[in-house]
Design a protein that fits this description.
735 residues, mainly beta, Pectate Lyase C-like, Para_beta_helix_rpt-2, ubl conjugation pathway, Pectin_lyase_fold/virulence, NosD_dom, Cell surface protein
Length: 735
């Protein structure tokens, strides 16, 4: 390069060159063969860029550029009108890096196996750092395939990037100045950027391995719904974007699940952000509403707000994080009816924040504090429950907090979550139960949630027939220990921190009262909450949460598990070597596995709500799983937003009928399972190409299944699966 002049063309013969090249002149540098695989440049200094370009009008073409461990294959440094074409950038920190660069062309490059990004654009607040054109670039197997740096709030972001650019084989949608565009699962997007857009709809996408999977910049009145985002830096991020709505998205294993920056009037509801570094992160934003979201098992914060005002955080669950809900330098916000339990530091930390209102929140079993008020000022706390293992609320002293109003603390004041079951049991008038629901799915467990044929054991329950009453200050286990087989134990609403062993035939029910929720939280999260090792046990009407094992584990026969809510457990309901158990009208959501049958036969799983189960990584994320289990009946269940909806492994002679298995990544899958009947199910996958898959499974019958009204189901089976009666749109795998 030293001997060249502006405008020269440098042809490079095939071979391997070990050097770092500074390009400070207008040059065309191209491989003589045009084949990047036989003209290789490796970094002599792995901490430096291979091609560092500080001149305009440079062309680099036809090279394989490798091993810049903490630099870039090609680094365009505040330059313009350069062309980067037909290069392979591999095993660098960043493949191609545009630093404050504009009007450059990147075409036909491949960026693979780079430790940070395949292609990175780093604009600044200047209009100059924009208008780059990317065509037909392939980004694959980079940590973050495509990235735009977003620290500069006034950056232009106006680039020309079309869908010929791909990440892991899926197109990049980079939309600028457009309105009223809908991207659904048919778009098969790899990453989505909306720059200066309005009225956009982004739905049913599965997006992985980007710096921003969904990025809204200066975008308003748009909606992102039912997307799955994993292994990105940001799953979803909004910058300078107002009046947008995010519903039912799942963000796992990202650095930030969902982020909002310098934005106003955005609404997030029913989203799940688990196993990220931060679940939800709101910065410098106003009037953000977070409602009924779940943020569990995040390394730092479940929900974090900083330098933000007038926000509402209501009805969220933030368990097993560093901090559950963290406010820093925030004011005039409302935190109401949230649950923040078992976090490593504080449940709810409004430190260095003022003029906020915290009402009816639960923050139990956090390692340091339920509520941490260091440096906070003029906050109002009413009706909260904060009896953590260390303290309840910090003392109101100058070095911890100033002028906070703390009133009415105690569990007796408020129900802390909207109960899924508004009336657990009426044991006086048995005609409150439906007479004819046996063949109809029940979507709302509060309505007629036990049919007469299954509720005879309740018909004669009256106050006089109760053997033991348990109040919140009492022990359920003590009542179990003092009872005899056949006894009835009624538990009053409240919070109980216990792990229970049931080793005799009992009816254990939640007694309705002023509160509709009776919650049992694991005292030891390393143990099951209900461990049932007896026949003919009934468990009815409880909220069961907070264990790394099973919410209800049953080994025995003849039992009934009905009307329970199971949240944030490894397994919601787990049958092991159990038979003739009825599992009905439970809500088993936000667990690792919602309902799990292992080595269990002749059980009925009916009319349950099973959703958002994938808390425990790749191994545990099933709605309903049957393993080595035969002759079971699954009917009328609503199974949605799980990784695997219903999965059978080495399980035969089961009947799956009239289930709604919708918006799961994999809906119904059979592996090594024979002679099963799949009848009249509604099945629609959110991410996979097929609704029902068969692997090494024989003699199964599929009949009457559909994706919805008059729409055929999509079925995939391999040649190793034989003698199945199939239907719908079929695909025979050739593997």
């Amino acid at each position: 390069m030293i001997n060249s002049n502006n405008g020269d063309i440098i042809l490079v013969n095939t071979g391997t060159y070990i050097e770092n090249v500074d390009v400070d002149k207008k040059l065309t540098i191209t491989s003589k063969s045009g084949n990047p695989e036989d003209t290789i440049v490796q970094a002599l200094s792995p901490g430096d860029h291979i091609f560092h370009v500080t001149a305009n009008n440079v062309t680099i073409k036809g090279f394989s550029l490798k091993n810049s461990i903490s630099g870039s294959g090609i680094y365009l440094d505040s330059v313009q009108y350069n062309t980067i074409a037909n290069n392979h950038l591999q095993a660098n920190e960043i493949g191609i890096h545009l630093w404050h660069a504009n009007n450059n062309i990147l075409i036909n490059n491949t960026a693979s196996d780079n430790s940070w990004a395949g292609i990175r654009l780093f604009p600044d607040d200047s209009e100059l750092a924009s208008n780059n054109t990317l065509v037909n670039n392939t980004m694959v197997n980079n940590t973050y395939n495509f990235e735009i740096y977003i620290a500069y709030r006034n950056a232009s972001m106006r680039n020309n990037i079309d869908t010929t650019n791909t990440v892991n084989g899926k197109p990049v949608y980079y939309l600028v100045n457009v309105s009223n565009v809908a991207l659904n699962s048919a778009s098969n997007a790899g990453a989505i950027y909306c720059i200066n857009c309005q009225n956009m709809s982004i739905k049913d996408q599965v997006l992985q391995n980007n710096s921003q999977a969904i990025f809204l910049f200066n975008t308003s009145n748009s909606r992102f719904d039912s997307n799955i985002l994993s292994n990105n830096y940001f799953g979803i991020v909004l910058v300078n974007s107002d009046n947008n709505t995010g519903l039912n998205n799942i963000a796992v294993n990202n650095i930030v699940g969902i982020g909002i920056v310098a934005s106003t009037d955005n609404y997030l509801s029913n989203n799940v952000a688990n196993f990220n570094f931060n679940g939800f992160d709101v910065q410098e934003s106003t009037n953000t509403e977070l409602h009924n979201n779940t943020a569990n098992f995040n390394k730092d914060n479940g929900i974090a707000l900083s330098s933000s005002i007038q926000n509402e955080v209501t009805g969220n669950i933030a368990n097993y994080n560093g901090d559950g809900i963290n406010l820093f330098n925030c004011s005039t916000s409302l935190l109401n009816n949230n649950i923040a339990n078992s976090n490593r530091y504080a449940g709810i930390d409004p430190g260095s924040s003022k003029d906020n209102i915290l009402t009816d929140n639960i923050a139990n079993s956090n390692r340091k504090h339920g509520f941490e008020l260091v440096g906070s000022d003029n906050n109002t706390l009413r009706g909260n429950i904060g009896n953590s293992d260390v303290d309840h609320l910090p003392d109101d002293s100058p070095n911890r907090t100033s002028k906070n109003e703390t009133k009415d603390q105690g569990i007796e004041n408020k129900s802390f979550i909207d109960s899924t079951i508004s009336v657990i049991i009426s044991w006086v008038h048995h005609n409150n139960f439906s007479d004819n629901v046996d063949n109809n799915p029940i979507n709302n467990p509060s309505d007629n949630f036990i049919n007469n044929s299954k509720s005879n054991f309740l018909d004669n329950i009256s106050d006089d027939s109760i053997n033991f009453y348990v109040h919140p200050e009492d022990s359920i286990q003590q009542a179990i220990d003092n009872s005899s087989s056949g006894d009835i134990i009624a538990v009053y609403p409240g919070l109980y921190k216990e792990n229970l062993i049931v080793n005799k035939s009992l009816i254990i029910i939640s007694k309705p009262g002023e509160s509709t929720e009776t919650k049992i939280q694991a005292a030891d999260p390393e143990d099951d909450i209900f461990y049932v090792a007896a026949d003919n046990v009934t468990i009815c009407g409880f909220n069961v949460t907070g264990t790394d094992k099973a919410g209800i584990r049953y080994t025995g026969s003849g039992g009934i598990i009905v009307g329970n809510k199971l949240v944030s457990d490894k397994y919601g309901i787990y049958l092991k070597k159990a038979e003739n158990i009825t599992i009905e009208n439970n809500n088993a959501s936000q667990n690792g596995r919602g309902i799990y049958l292992r080595d269990s036969s002749r059980n009925i799983v009916k009319n349950n709500e099973v959703s958002h189960n994938w808390f425990y990584g790749k191994e545990y994320r099933n709605g309903i799983l049957l393993k080595n289990s035969n002759n079971n009946k699954l009917t009328g269940n609503n199974v949605s937003r799980n990784w695997d909806g219903i999965r059978l492994e080495n399980s035969s002679n089961n009947e799956l009928s009239k289930n709604a298995v919708i918006d799961d990544y994999f809906c119904i899958g059979l592996e090594d399972s024979n002679n099963n009947k799949l009848l009249d199910n509604t099945v629609k996958s959110i991410g996979y190409s097929f609704d029902i898959t068969l692997g090494n499974s024989h003699n199964n019958t599929l009949q009457g299944n559909s994706e919805g009204f008059m729409t055929e189901v999509r079925v995939s089976s391999g040649p190793e699966s034989t003698n199945n009666t199939l239907e719908g749109r079929q695909h025979i795998r050739r593997d």
